[in-house]
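Quick illustration, no need to memorize.
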Amino acid sequence: MRVRARFDDKLQELENQLIKMGANVEDVVSMAFKALLERDTALAKKAIAADGEVDRLEIEIEKDCLNLIALQQPLAGDLREIAGILKIITDLERIGDYGVNIAKIAVEFDEEEFIKPLVDLPEMENIVREMVKGSLDAFVEKDVELARRIAKLDDRVDLLYARVYNDLLEFGMKDSVAKRQIIRLLFVGRHLERMADHVTNICERVIYMIDGIRENY
């Protein structure tokens, strides 16, 4: 019984570390996009620096997962969760990297004014942050239906990205001077779209952890 209790404690510690990593990823994304909207170079650099903690947690969690597998010989259900955590932290780390990419674009903008009001990109970012939080809630609560609902939000992000892409290209056809900024904003949209893809991966992994069923969204 004591062995099982120790194992459960270690597994709970892993879950807590993952949630901490997820919260840090949310902060990176939020700071990076706010820095872009406000052309705040200092905040952008803060977001870039914050990603270091995300990377550190990924390494720490991976090490603890492997130690738990090696030393405790977990049962099938437990092993699925540990393997799921290993997959999830990889996706979270990639989301953080995309946040850093947006922060770097914010630094390039500095105080440059936008060529047009940003509407769809902020909506994409709001949905992405909702997806990150929702996927982690689904993990903590072991909620399959929540994971499915969050995964389906990726369709909305894809539609918005298509609209951003088309609008910016159309704008660029009329104003060649703005082409460099258009390219930057297209990259911002692409980074947000890829974040949503990684959150979808997390949701699929949560479903597999709970039900042992592989679903693709």
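The chain has a mean pLDDT of 92.
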